[in-house]
Amino acid sequence: MAKKFPTHPIHPERICWGCAKYCAADAMRCGNGSERTQHPAELLGEDWLDFGLDASAAREAGSAEQPAVRDAPAAGSGHIV
Fold first, then answer.
1. Does pTM surpass 0.85?
2. What is the pLDDT averaged over residues 4-16?
3. HEC profile for the chain?
């Protein structure tokens, strides 16, 4: 059985995501090269699940895994937009 892939890890920079071993970035056992493979959240941002082949199907189905959209700041709240 395959390990469950974490969608939003706390510190993705500490792990190599290149194979199912999830080695520490400074002690890679798989020989996946000299650099670690980055997590998709590092490459595409926190909304990385919105990209890819299943993104439109997930949006249409109203997937619960999608992050909530933040409201825009209220007018006159002092925030520069």
1. no
2. 88
3. CCCCCCCCCCCHHHECCCCCCCCECCCCCCCCCCCCCCCHHHHHCCCHHHCCCCHHHHHHHCCCCCCCCCCCCCCCCCCCC
